[in-house]
Specification:
By secondary structure, the protein is of the alpha+beta class. It has helices spanning 2-10, 14-25, 28-32, 36-48, 52-65, 69-97, 116-130, 134-140, 154-167, 176-180, 320-334, 344-351, 355-358, 374-391, and strands at 106-111, 147-153, 171-175, 184-193, 196-202, 208-214, 220-234, 243-259, 264-269. The protein has 3 domains: 2-96, Serine Threonine Protein Phosphatase 5, Tetratricopeptide repeat (Alpha Horseshoe), CATH 1.25.40; 98-179, no CATH class; 183-343, no CATH class. The protein has 14 helices and 9 strands. Helix 12 crosses helix 14 (374-391). The longest helix is centred in the first third of the chain and has 29 residues, at 69-97. It comes from Prochlorothrix hollandica PCC 9006 = CALU 1027. This is Cyclic nucleotide-binding protein. Residues 284-315 are annotated as: Disordered.
Length: 395
């Protein structure tokens, strides 16, 4: 019957070949001890049907089952043929995806977490797609958090997202224009009353104003710690040499509250908040608080690992950090249903190498720095991507 099966493939009678294969595969002996020739022709039939991924796996299985010279040569040739067909299909799809003039807009591609058990399975085919070896692909696939993978023309990135989805690798891409069009309001003061909060804030053009928000309008909480660098003198080993370096001396904490119905972000930062304007629902500011000028609060030093829970009591704490902690406590009491997005630092480490792309994203943060820092741009990118993926994931 194997000869009949081969003859059916020679004359391209695939209907007869499928019937013969079905008869052979139903044989109990074939199920107990698969015949490599039957598997080979199953792969040929899958190749003809356009099931290239299944066909390649079937041919690879044949190579593991037999050392027959003719059969192994045919299987290797079939694998090469299948890979060539896949490569040509990708080239045609990529050319079609980039044909539209609008597809040349810059954008970014982000990899989403992959099941660790699937990494080894998808690495070979994903490596051919990305022109990388499987080992490098396994190292680059994230398992817990987002990974900022690459930048480029949005048409090309959409092609890669679709190709990765077919392989079982979740990813998404966003054009730069969508990232830069989401409005951000920088909060300088906050006053709460019942189920609403009134934010005194500034727009991206530094225009002052007020924004009254219902707590039920806040649908997403994104926070991050931005390192603050200072130039310090390093004595080196044994104090024999002195070198001036930029080192992290403190952190600024930023909290973004997303309002999807209004299509905007309300941004609070412990370094730019003006505390005299904050009023707690059950504890107005005490008369013992020293007066402060109407300007951003100075950096008074705060460990990034300091606890975020305020001490019990209704009096407004006196230190910079204690007041900020009390603000966060009040916000969390009003928004207990929101799970904060806290994976910014892991994301930023994968995005900081793409400085040219980050420079095109305004940070919407006014921190006291000696020079521009890509960490600020990376946080706005992370927060905006979280907004888009949560409320409007269409690329």
């Amino acid at each position: 019957m194997i000869n009949q099966l081969a003859a059916a493939f020679d004359r391209q009678d695939y209907r007869t070949a499928a019937q013969l294969l079905q008869t052979l595969e139903q044989d109990p002996q074939q199920q107990a001890n698969p015949d490599p020739w039957v598997l080979f022709y199953r792969g040929r039939l899958q190749e003809v049907a356009g099931q290239l991924d299944s066909a390649e796996r079937t041919f690879q299985r044949v190579l593991k089952l037999t050392t027959h010279l003719r059969l192994t040569n045919l299987s290797r040739q079939s694998i090469q043929r299948v890979q060539t067909i896949e490569r040509e299909q990708r080239q045609r799809a990529l050319a079609q995806a980039t044909a539209d003039p609008a597809s040349g807009e810059p954008g970014c591609l982000v990899l989403q977490p992959v099941d660790p058990e699937l990494k080894a399975q998808v690495a070979p085919r994903l490596g051919r797609l990305l022109k990388l070896d499987p080992y490098t692909v396994r190292l680059q696939l994230p398992t817990r958090q987002w990974r900022f993978y690459r930048t480029g023309a949005i048409g090309e990135l959409r092609f890669y997202v679709q190709a990765m989805a077919e392989l079982g690798v979740p990813a998404f891409c966003v054009p730069l224009s969508r990232i830069n069009t989401l409005p951000v309001f920088r909060v300088t003061q906050c006053q709460t009353e019942g189920q609403t909060a009134q934010f005194t804030c500034q727009s991206h053009t530094d225009e002052p104003g007020t924004l009254t928000v219902g707590w039920d309008e806040v649908k997403l909480w994104v926070e991050g710690l931005l390192p603050l660098f200072e130039s310090v003198v390093d004595r080196g080993y044994w104090g024999l040499s002195t070198v001036r370096k930029d080192k992290t001396q403190d952190y600024a904490q930023v909290v973004d509250l997303h309002l999807p119905d209004r299509g905007c972000i309300v941004r609070l930062c412990d370094r730019t908040y003006v505390f005299p304007g904050y009023v707690f629902p059950d504890a107005p500011p005490t008369a013992t608080d020293p007066p402060r000028p109407d300007q951003p609060s100075p950096s008074l030093g705060r460990s990034p690992t300091a606890p975020l829970q305020a001490k019990a009591g209704n009096t407004l704490p006196g230190t910079h950090h204690q007041k900020w902690v009390q603000i966060l406590t009040t916000l969390r009491q009003q928004l207990p249903h929101l799970e904060p997005w806290t994976a910014f630092n892991a994301f930023a480490k994968t995005a900081l190498d793409h400085t040219i792309f980050l420079e095109q994203i305004p940070p919407h943060l006014h921190l006291l720095r000696r020079e521009d820092c890509p960490w600020d741009n990376a946080f706005h990118l992370y927060s905006t991507l979280a907004h888009i993926q949560s409320f409007d994931p269409t690329p």
